[in-house]
Structures are given as structure tokens and as C-alpha cells.
Amino acid sequence: MAPAASRWRDSNVLFVLAALFVPPLAIPLLLLRPEKGSTKVLGCVVLLLMTGVYARTATRIQWPQPSGPPEAHWDALEAHRRAQAKRARGGEDVRAAAAPASTGRYWTSFRGPGAAGRYDEMPVVDDWPSAGLPLLWKQPIGQGWSSFAVADGVAYTLERRRAQEVVAAYDVASGRELWSESWKSSFSESADRDGPRATPVWDEGRVYALGAAGDLVALEAASGRRLWRRDILRENDAANIQWGVAASPVVIGDVVVTMPGGPEGRAVVAYDKLTGEPRWSALSDAVAYTTPMLLTLAGREQLLVVTATRAVGLDPLDGGLLWEHPWATDMGVNAAQPIVVGTDRFILSAGYGHGAALVEVAAAGDAFTTRAVWETNRMKNKLSSSVYHDGHLYGLDEGILACIDVATGDLRWKGGRYGHGQLLLVQGALVVLTEDGELALVEAVPEAFVERARFAALDGQTWNNPAISSGILLVRNSREMAAYRIGAAGAAGASA
Predict the structure, then answer these.
(1) pTM, two decimal places
(2) Cα separation of 171 and 155, whole Å?
């Protein structure tokens, strides 16, 4: 092949590669080529359009965040727990817990009572000090995106430690690890956000936890002794979803409800909470990341489930389908919890360009119908869930806090950039845990956005839901955990 032809071939290859992968760099290469001027102008326009499309796509991708050296983190975590155990009881076994700081059983499951993200147990501090809420303790924790379930002064959460998933129990007042139970599992995903997602649930002296790869375990709450274990994905012929099992287990009467996403009627499966044996199953949907909710709508107690394509009401006794409402999103991602706003109404929300809808359920004899009262693109809950207060919905619309009038769906205000964090309604105010690990106090009023306080609570990316019990606010991310006193002075259980 002649040298000129070879150079022409190489030039074509270089230009095509640049145009496909780095369009801006292809523009000068195009201008140096022998094509006519009109062809070059058209080519530059196409390359500029490709640049815009690539840039828009890049802003929608959840790019990996620096996670630090896992080995160093795990070494530090293990050293901390050894030193902690040694200080407690002079090195004796700490699985037998000391007397709990509280006997409260208020926040025993994901997002508290009714999964509503609402705290009304006792009075709280409504004027935070400039330096932030009083810190009780802060310490390292294993990887993961779970929240806490709290009962009898003990907080339970899920973590990844090296190649194992771990259920750990912590004394709320001191942060001391009381026990841990583990199994081999190391769920990873492409964005380097590894570890379990779901939150344990406490029920009648037992803890139920569900790992990111489908390991469902029942443990004795006082000691961590394993009672039974199931692999909900394998035994229901289900493939894991992209970002791992995230729907927390829910205890309803004598069963534990899970969402493996299996075919042939095994998308939702209930297990006997004492024996672990399957009791009933329902649906064949691809599942999403939301946790089932037991509630009453249109006069009927039911299990509200959101899959990848719809919301459904199920009979909690046998999983029978009561009604369905379409709710499909890009990529099949539903992660936000439904928000109940009346005796027959709830709000659905999703990110990825979708929005929110007020859904009404109506009973007609033994049958039910649904309708969308309104829909809006002004509340897109991507990774977080909203809260309801006095006729208004407060939530993170793609990372920006917003207020929606529930009656009309109209936007009342939007302000305050918190990233993909989480929020709770705490006695008429919003406690926001930002994606960067800050805690903020915002007024839950429809007139205007008013942030009253903000301080750094954790270091690093924080997607985990906060939890509150007996006046103590618990926060964590994939690197550290902390407890802050939020209960008002004199409130029972508010002191450490």
C-alpha cells in the first residue's frame, strides 16, 4: 500500500474514532480534511449536536464516587470493634447486652411507623445550636446503604465487611456493638456502591434482615443467634435487579413479606416468621426498589406494592390482587415509597424524568378501581421518599427540596440543593440528611422555603435514611455512623 493511501486510511480511522467517542476533537480533524466547505459545515453541526447529546447523557449517569481503600477501612473498623469490646466489660463477650438505655419500640422498621418517614414519639429541639445537634458518638461502620431499626435501646442495621454481609446490633446510647451475625456475600455493582441496601425489621424479639443478594435471615434480637435463613432469589428462580435487593422485609401478622421478583407468581413471597417456610406468593412482575406497605385504603386493609411497572393492592392474607394502577418509569426504576395522604389516596413519585401522581382508590362492592387525580413533573423522587404534612408534600425533586399542594398538584416552592439525600418529618419540621452528609432543619410550611440550620454530620456520600428513637437521631453512610441528641431537654429517653 502506498504511503499516501496509508496516511489517508489512518486519517479516516482517527477521525471516525474521535467522532464517535470525543466529538469536539473531531471538529479540527474535519476542518483539515479535503472535503468541500458545505460538507465541513454540515459535519461540524452534526458533531456539535453529538457533543450536546453526550454531555446531557453524562449528567444523568451516576458516576462512581471515590470510596477510599476498602482494606484500610476494614482494618480500621476491625481494630475499632476490638478496642470497643475490650473497653466494655474488660474484654468479656459483649453478645449479652447491658441494660438498654430505653424500652421504646417506636422506630422498628424502614422509615418508622407505616414507612411514613414521620417522627412524633416525643418533643424535639426546634432551634438547633449553631454548631449542630449534640453529638453522642461517631464511629466507623461497614459498607452499605441500609438504615436502622430500633427497639429496646438497640439499633440494628446491615453492613458489608470484607466478603461478608453482617447484621449488627448497637447500643443506641453508646454506639457499642452488642453482637453481629454474618454470612458470605459481597454484592457489588458497577458504580462502586457495594453492600446491602435493605433495612432490618424488629418484631416480637426477632430481627429479620435481607441482604443485597437475596439472603433473608431471622435472628434472635437479644443475642444475634440465627433462627433460620432463606435464599429468596435462588428458590424463586429470580435474577437480581441491577442495584441489588433493596426492598426491606415487612412483618404482617405471622408472615414476613419479601420481593424476590420471581416468575410464575413469585414476585412477592411471604414466609412464616417463625419457621421460614413459604406461606403465599403473588404477581410475576419485575420488581423495583420500594418496600411493601401495610395500610388501609377505601376501607380495606391491604398491602401496597410498587413493582417496576405498576402499583398494586394485595390481600395481606393470601396475596390476592385487589387492584392495580400503571406506574412505569425509564429503566424500570421505582425507588420512592408511596405516601398516604388520605383514607383513599396516596402519591407515587419517581425520577428518571417521570414525576408524581395522586392516585385514588375506590371500592365498588368487593371490587376496586383507581384513577389519577393529578400528575406532575414537579416532584421527581429519584432515590429518596417524600413526607406529608398539613395538606402538602415535601420532597427532593431530583435533589432540590420542593413543596407540592396535595389537593391540586401545584408547586408551592422549590429551594435548597441537598442532592440525593433523605428527609424525615419531625414534629412539623423537615430534617434533611444531604447527599454530602450534612443535617439540615427546614420549616415544613407552604409559604416559602426556609432553612433554619445546617451542619456537617457525616463524611462522604450519604444515601441512607436517618432514623429516630427515644430522642436520638441515628445517621450512617457507607463509611461511618453517628448518633445526635434531637430530643428536647426533659423529654423521656432524650439523654444518653
Answers:
(1) 0.85
(2) 6
